Amino acid sequence: MISITTDYAAVSRGNPRPYLRRIAEAGFTHIHWCHQWDSDFCYDSSEINAISRWLKAYGLQLLDLHGSMGPEKNWASHRPHERAAGVALVRNRLEMTAHLGGDAVVMHIPSGPPSGALRRSLDALQPVVRSTGVRIAIENGQFPSIITLLSEYPPDFLGHCYDSGHANMTNGGGIGGLDQIKDRLLVVHLHDNDGQRDQHKLPFSGTVNWPSLAKTLAASAYKKPLSTEANMGCHPGMTETDFLSEALSSMEELDAMGRKPNLVV
Ligand SMILES: [Zn+2]
Question: Could you say which DSSP state residue 192 is in?
Answer without folding.
Answer: B
